[in-house]
């Protein structure tokens, strides 16, 4: 472990070019995919949580099933779809960062939807009552609701980001872990482990965890700000 | 019909859960009984002085046997191959960068690249990692420079080539000189070939003759200008049989490598198999005595699980495993030398 920590520090201090590339691809992929997932998942989650309509139960079951989708299965589906012989081959997306983001969005959007839905459905009756008492219109009721769950939105985003940065099964399938192009932290760790270079793998793991820590601290501060 | 099916499913799940529970309870009841006897042994072990210098115990026991020849072959993918999608329907317009694949094969077979490949490893390990085939068809014609459409080349190769560092050493020279970008995906030979069959590679660099011949026979290969055959073999090295330095099976004294494998099987000494359909795995399967009937099929070695370990992992990870378990293993020499040079960390 000692040598792994040393190697991690050495790698960061030397600003290794390949490491910088891996970090930038990782950052691009996990930020883009978690933001996109939030953008899609937030309205869906609020809608499912706040409104009562026919088929809502079925949608919830579908969403919960998708929450449990094994990443490697998601990766496999995208691989087959965008493969050189797949139906979407003309888009030439296989082994690009874009398709990694796409696969990640499919994986993590259900998680955002799920967390938002369970929170919103718990607070919605109270908010509705308050809105009725204050005679607020639809738009302002929604604003009130969103204000109530701003803390939860941060948590949902954090969950999405963490899942995205830590995921390996899907991104290694569709990204191919190509050096200088689609190699992210997790796939690089896999590669070094497969080669038997465990200490470099742990070194990268330490860097990944520190990155995660930084993002978590930032969002926690933001969360404190919004809940005040 | 549906109802009975779902009922059956629920029943099966219940049975599985019950079986799981009962086996775990027996394991729990067994555990305390086993613990007292194990505990003292453990403390004795921890009191022993830990070796401070990392010494790799695994060593080469058998090498340079004719049957251990490991030849690497380049094959360009045929854009008009009978590609099929996942459902088996034919697909015709698969994009394959033929010009790029040609340029890379031409360059790899040029005198310049062959000289580089032949010298690889001497500096780092004091030993050649690859040798040139005697009848290698040297290419001395024109090599096309990259254009906007052809500049990205998708090379699907095996982990052993990639892990040996050969491509990282050769490709930058090519990319610099001709302006291409080579995207390397590495996996076991089986998966590397599958990637090409799914239209995700422009050329492959693999080392498993039988699988290559199947690939060519199925019409996925293309003969590159300037060569006679679809399969362009150019470099080789040897597989080596490694094992613990004590060599309990006496593999090093066997007259042939097949006898060494027979001795390992006879004495049931632990053997780590790649088990991942790689070229190394295919070679290993061909070396066992035929009466054992070991194939890539998991069923075939179900009776040998006490000594035959199918790891389903990369070469480096398997070497670490062999070192930990004091097991025998078949490996390519390049990865093994890198593993030893790094003190057992490939």
Structure write-up:
The complex is a heterodimer of chains A (228) and B (346). Chain A is built from 10 helices and no strands. With 228 residues, chain A is mainly α. Chain A has a single domain, classed as Orthogonal Bundle (MetI-like fold). The termini of chain A are far apart. The mean pLDDT of chain A is 89. With 346 residues, chain B is an alpha/beta fold. Chain B folds into 2 domains: 112 residues, Periplasmic binding protein-like II (D-Maltodextrin-Binding Protein, domain 2); 166 residues, D-Maltodextrin-Binding Protein, domain 2, CATH 3.40.190. Chain B is built from 12 helices and 11 strands. In chain B, strand 9, helix 10 and strand 10 form a beta-alpha-beta unit. Chains A and B meet through helix 9 of A and strand 5 and helix 11 of B.
Layout of helices and strands, plus pairs?
The complex is a heterodimer of chains A (228) and B (346).
Chain A: H1 2-13, H2 17-50, H3 56-67, H4 71-82, H5 97-134, H6 138-148, H7 150-166, H8 169-175, H9 185-195, H10 198-227
Helix pairs in contact in A: 1-10, 2-5, 2-7, 3-5, 4-5, 4-8, 5-6, 5-7, 5-8, 7-10, 9-10
Chain B: H1 2-47, E1 58-62, E2 69-77, H2 98-108, H3 111-119, H4 122-125, E3 131-132, E4 152-158, H5 159-164, H6 166-178, E5 181-187, H7 189-197, E6 203-206, H8 209-217, E7 221-222, E8 232-244, H9 257-267, E9 271-273, H10 279-287, E10 308-310, H11 315-325, E11 328-332, H12 333-341
Parallel strand pairs in B: 4-5, 4-6, 9-10, 9-11
Antiparallel strand pairs in B: 1-8, 2-6, 2-7, 2-8, 3-8, 8-11
């Amino acid at each position: 472990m000692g040598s792994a920590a040393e190697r991690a520090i050495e790698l960061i201090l030397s600003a290794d070019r390949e490491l910088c590339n891996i970090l930038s691809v990782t950052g691009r992929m996990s930020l883009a995919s978690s933001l996109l997932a939030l953008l899609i998942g937030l309205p869906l989650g609020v809608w499912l949580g706040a409104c009562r309509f026919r088929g809502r139960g079925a949608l919830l079951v579908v969403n919960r099933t998708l929450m449990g989708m094994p990443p490697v299965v998601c990766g496999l589906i995208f691989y087959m779809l965008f493969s050189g012989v797949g139906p979407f081959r003309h888009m030439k997306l296989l082994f690009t960062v874009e398709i990694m983001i796409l696969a990640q969005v499919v994986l993590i959007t259900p998680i955002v939807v799920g967390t938002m839905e369970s929170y919103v459905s718990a607070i919605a009756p109270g908010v509705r009552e308050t809105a009725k008492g204050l005679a607020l219109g639809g738009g302002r009721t929604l604003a009130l609701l969103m204000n109530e769950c701003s803390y939860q939105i941060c948590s949902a985003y954090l969950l999405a980001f963490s899942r995205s940065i830590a995921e390996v099964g899907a991104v290694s399938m569709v990204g191919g872990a190509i050096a200088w192009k689609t190699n992210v932290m997790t796939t690089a760790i896999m590669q070094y482990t497969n080669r038997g270079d465990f200490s470099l793998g742990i070194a990268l793991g330490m860097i990944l965890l520190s990155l995660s820590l930084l993002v978590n601290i930032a969002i926690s501060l933001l969360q404190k700000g919004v809940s005040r | 019909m549906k109802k009975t099916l779902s009922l059956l499913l629920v029943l099966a799940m219940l049975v599985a859960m019950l079986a799981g529970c009962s086996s775990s309870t027996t394991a729990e009841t067994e555990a305390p009984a086993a613990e007292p006897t194990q505990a003292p042994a453990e403390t004795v072990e921890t009191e022993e002085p830990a070796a401070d210098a990392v010494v790799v115990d695994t060593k080469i026991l058998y090498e340079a046997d004719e049957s251990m020849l490991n030849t690497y072959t380049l094959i360009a993918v045929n854009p008009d191959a009978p590609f099929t999608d996942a459902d088996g329907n034919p697909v015709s317009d698969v994009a394959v960068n033929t010009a790029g694949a040609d340029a890379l094969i031409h360059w790899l077979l040029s005198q310049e690249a062959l000289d580089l490949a032949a010298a690889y490893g001497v500096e780092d390990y004091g030993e050649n990692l690859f040798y040139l085939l005697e009848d290698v068809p040297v290419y001395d014609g024109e090599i096309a420079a990259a254009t906007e459409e052809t500049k990205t080349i998708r090379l699907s190769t095996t982990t052993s080539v990639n892990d040996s560092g050969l491509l990282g050493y050769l490709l930058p020279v090519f990319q610099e000189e001709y302006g291409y970008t080579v995207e390397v995906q590495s996996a076991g030979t089986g998966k590397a070939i599958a990637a090409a069959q799914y239209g995700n590679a422009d050329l492959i660099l693999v080392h498993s003759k039988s699988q290559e011949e199947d690939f060519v026979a199925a019409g996925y290969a293309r003969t590159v200008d300037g060569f006679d055959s679809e399969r362009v073999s150019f470099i080789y090295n040897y597989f080596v049989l490694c094992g613990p330095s004590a060599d309990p099976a006496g593999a090093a004294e066997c007259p042939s490598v097949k006898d060494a494998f027979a001795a390992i099987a006879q004495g049931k000494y632990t053997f780590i198999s790649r088990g991942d359909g790689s070229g190394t795995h295919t070679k290993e399967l061909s070396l066992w005595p035929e009466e054992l009937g070991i194939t890539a099929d998991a069923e075939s070695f179900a009776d040998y699980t006490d000594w035959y370990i199918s790891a389903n992992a990369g070469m480096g990870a398997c070497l670490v495993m062999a070192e930990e378990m004091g097991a025998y293993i078949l490996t390519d020499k390049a990865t093994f030398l890198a593993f030893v040079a790094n003190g057992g960390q490939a």
